[in-house]
TrEMBL record, chain A:
It is found in: Cell membrane. Keywords: ATP-binding, Cell membrane, Membrane, Nucleotide-binding, Transport. PANTHER family: DIPEPTIDE TRANSPORT ATP-BINDING PROTEIN DPPD (PTHR43297:SF2), OLIGOPEPTIDE TRANSPORT ATP-BINDING PROTEIN APPD (PTHR43297). One of its GO terms (molecular function) is ATP binding. This is Peptide/nickel transport system ATP-binding protein. It comes from Blastococcus xanthinilyticus. GO terms for biological process: peptide transport. GO terms for cellular component: plasma membrane. InterPro entries: AAA+_ATPase, ABC_Ni/Peptide_Import, ABC_transporter-like_ATP-bd, ABC_transporter-like_CS, Oligopep_ABC_C, P-loop_NTPase. SMART domains: AAA (SM00382). Belongs to the ABC transporter superfamily. Residues 22-276 form the ABC transporter domain. It is a peripheral membrane protein.
From TrEMBL, chain B:
Gene3D superfamilies: P-loop containing nucleotide triphosphate hydrolases (3.40.50.300). Residues 22-271 form the ABC transporter domain. Belongs to the ABC transporter superfamily. Keywords: ATP-binding, Nucleotide-binding, Transport. This is Peptide/nickel transport system ATP-binding protein. It comes from the Bacteria. It holds the Pfam family oligo_HPY. InterPro entries: AAA+_ATPase, ABC_transp_ATP-bind, ABC_transporter-like_ATP-bd, ABC_transporter-like_CS, Oligopep_ABC_C, P-loop_NTPase. One of its GO terms (biological process) is transmembrane transport. One of its GO terms (molecular function) is ATP hydrolysis activity.
């Protein structure tokens, strides 16, 4: 991995200790059971390494939340997993496919191995119970025989860890601010020291100052506890700061997968480039930006070939015929860790200079 | 457009260009707290605001800072508790429906959620014709068609025939917001109040809407109040920026100056907290605390409980907006010429070293530093 990826604040995803903890292979999800279901995820493959923060970015409706829910088998009907596997590697090295676990195994594994902080997590606390009890419940469910007192002590410890005074254990959710509720959710997710923490838009409802505090907290906790994070958001500029690696999704597929700084400095897919240019910068020259032409696609009526073709400024007639596979970039030798789904990368000669920055 | 009433775009040429088209003076809004025994939410306090024609003014603040309340007060959707509202320098407070109609013809509002602001049972044609009929009199037949086509064309929904008979559910979020903008333009307003017009939209199409508004401001010479929580988009779109905190304006000035060289400690915190891949070293780390309760707001400067530089003066007296540069003001005692003023340091230095300390600290240590100030 290039030096730029390790230069960030508190990153420690070294190429040397790359050990997968969650491997998603060819995962496909349909919505609807009838004659023609909508293909929401198509053959998505993604690997999360131990200790890594993986960012999952894309616009609403691109399937990033569906991917997280499908990978944890939390997808509600009419969502249907139609293929693929999700392999979880234990700390002991044992490999298990989440998609084929029995219900009992799944119950034991959830929260223990993979924990989720949901979108709008601030509203997922039960309003009629004190937060201490809610955290203790989760601990008790996974730790048979634990005393109530012990579970509450652990809950206090967890609150302390996310920067909330333990005397808040007896508070009801409505007595806490949005940011504090979000931190309670993070504390709950970490209660059983999971290996993987999936966070679905954890800061979207918060203000930037609070977002900064939460993001900082997550980075700090990860350093201490050593879990891996899948961070889902549409805010690419935030991801570039906090993620080690970023996977960009469009219309149910991953179109680019690379180290965060590489995505930012040298985007290889036209959509990644467009997405990055949709965020006005806070520094540097003020210039006119255009965003991406057209509208996000309707997954029921996807074009043939590359799904981004109608909005792409670099498309060729080939693009609407050939469906690109996620593969090496045109500079495969120089950047072995990058993958992109764009047929323009078949040949360095024809690659537009905008997608060929070095 | 009708000849029966003076069209707002005419007659303005005689106006002094220095007179703001819309001005608010010492605007204040208190909301009663239900069952609160006379307690009130101090939502907006002493806000002065001037918007000129062809100017984009951004109002930046976090949720609960009172920025949407200001939009609603300016649109006269609710009465202000105190303060004056001036249109071209004369009092514009409306009493009664007719006066309100006359007012909204000149001051139109665009709402945050284009999914909620368009009636789902009506077509685009109905939505726009209704606005045209209300504001421009009885248009019908070819004249109405022509007006509809012009409106859709102006918001870049082309070809217009494709959109005019569509229902809102057939349109994407960006297209819906364009219809909402067209509806506002039907009144040929002088002022657009845009309350978070892009925050509900997909990221890739947000700039398209901002660029459209930019184009309208240039071509139609409309004054736009752009309300947002995203200070980077304010820098991109607005000429001037006002930063609000807990119901008060804390800083005003040219957008570029406010974002590049923020003066008020809160603005500094805001700018240093926003995601910015190019400025990762300039992070305000370790900042703590949250916006205060507006039922019992802190005395003095409302930012003082979170401000690393606060002194006694900040806790007791409300700082006025002080001049801190060319056409720039900041409501911070640090810029006053008083002996008991606080000395401002850099937010960056105050918070910047936090991470190194936090990474090595024990859980208890991290908490002691991180305890919420509530």
């Amino acid at each position: 991995m290039s030096a730029s990826t390790t230069s960030g604040t508190g990153r420690h995803a070294d190429a040397a200790v790359r050990e997968p903890v969650l491997e998603i292979k060819n995962l496909s999800v349909d919505y609807g059971f009838g004659q023609d279901p909508t293909h929401v995820l198509r053959q998505v493959s993604l690997t999360l390494n131990r200790g890594e923060v993986l960012g999952l970015a894309g616009e609403s409706g691109c399937g990033k939340s569906t991917l997280a829910y499908a990978a944890t088998r939390l997808l509600p009907p009419p969502g249907l997993i139609t293929g693929g596997e999700v392999v979880l590697t234990d700390r002991s090295g044992e490999r298990r496919d989440i998609l084929t676990m029995s219900d009992a195994q799944l119950r034991a594994s959830r929260w223990q191995d993979v924990a989720i902080v949901f979108q709008g997590a601030m509203n997922s606390l039960n309003p009629v119970f004190r937060i201490g009890r809610q955290i203790a419940d989760a601990i008790a469910a996974h730790t048979p025989g634990i005393r109530k007192k012990q579970a509450l002590d652990r809950a206090a410890e967890l609150l302390d860890m996310v920067g909330i005074s333990p005397d808040r254990l007896s508070a009801f959710p409505h007595q806490l601010s949005g940011g504090m509720r979000q931190r309670v959710m993070i504390a709950m997710a970490l209660a059983l020291e999971p290996q993987v923490l999936i966070m679905d838009e954890p800061t979207t409802a918060l203000d930037v100052v609070m977002q900064r505090q939460i993001v900082e907290q997550i980075a700090e906790l990860r350093e201490r506890l050593g879990f891996s994070v899948v961070f889902i958001t549409h805010d690419v500029s935030l991801l570039i700061e906090i993620a080690d690696r970023i996977a960009i999704m469009y219309a149910g597929e991953i179109v680019e997968d690379a180290a965060a700084q590489d995505v930012y400095r040298r985007p290889r897919h036209p959509y990644s480039r467009g997405l990055l240019r949709s965020f006005p910068p806070l520094r540097g020259p003020r210039r006119e930006l255009t965003g991406i032409a057209g509208s996000p696609p309707d997954l029921r009526l996807l074009p043939t070939g590359c799904t981004f073709t109608p909005r792409c400024g670099f498309s060729t007639p080939e693009c609407s015929r050939i469906h690109p596979e996620l593969g090496p970039t045109a500079f495969a030798g120089a950047e072995p860790d990058r993958r992109v789904a764009c047929i323009l990368h078949g040949d360095v000669g024809t690659l537009p200079p905008e997608l060929a920055e070095r | 457009m009708t000849s029966s009433d003076p069209h707002p775009h005419d007659g303005d040429s005689s106006q002094d260009p220095g007179t703001p088209v819309l001005e608010a003076q010492a605007l204040r809004k208190y909301f009663p707290v239900r069952g609160g025994r006379g307690a009130v939410v101090h939502a907006v306090e002493d806000v002065d605001l001037r918007l000129h024609r062809g100017e984009v003014l951004a109002l930046v603040g976090e949720s609960g800072s009172g920025k949407s309340t200001i939009a609603r007060l300016l649109a006269q959707l609710m009465p202000a508790t105190e303060g004056r509202l001036l249109l071209h320098g004369s009092d514009a407070t409306v009493r009664g429906r007719r006066a309100f109609r006359r007012y909204v013809r000149r001051v139109q509002m665009i709402f945050q959620d284009p999914f909620a602001s368009l009636n789902p049972v009506h077509t685009v044609r109905y939505t726009l014709s209704r606005s045209l009929r209300i504001h421009r009199g009885r248009l019908r037949g070819p004249a109405l068609e022509q007006a509809l086509t012009e409106l859709l064309d102006r918001v870049q929904l082309r070809p217009p025939e494709r959109y005019v008979d569509a229902f809102p559910h057939e349109l994407s979020g960006g297209q819906r917001q364009r219809v909402a903008i067209a509806r506002a333009l039907a009144a040929e307003p002088e002022v657009l109040l845009a309350d978070e017009p892009i925050s509900m939209l997909d990221v890739s199409i947000r700039l398209g809407i901002l660029n459209l508004l930019q184009d309208l401001r240039t071509r139609l010479d409309i004054g736009i109040l752009y309300i947002t929580h995203d200070i980077a988009s304010a820098r991109y779109f607005a000429d001037r920026t006002m930063v609000m905190y807990a119901g008060r304006v804390v800083e005003t000035g040219d957008s570029e100056a406010v974002t590049q060289d923020p003066k008020h400690p809160y603005t500094q915190l805001l700018v240093r907290s926003a995601p910015d891949p190019d400025g990762m070293e300039d992070r305000a780390l370790g900042a703590r605390g949250e916006a205060p309760s507006l039922v019992t707001p802190p005395s003095g400067c409302r930012f003082h409980p979170r401000c690393p530089f606060a002194v006694d003066l900040c806790r007791t007296e409300v700082p006025p907006l002080l001049e801190v540069g060319a056409a720039r003001t900041a409501a911070c005692w640090g810029y006053a010429e008083r002996a008991d003023r606080p000395s401002l340091g850099s937010i960056l230095e105050t918070y910047g070293g936090h991470r190194a300390a936090a990474a090595t600290s024990t859980p208890a240590g991290a908490t002691a530093a991180g305890k919420d100030q509530r």
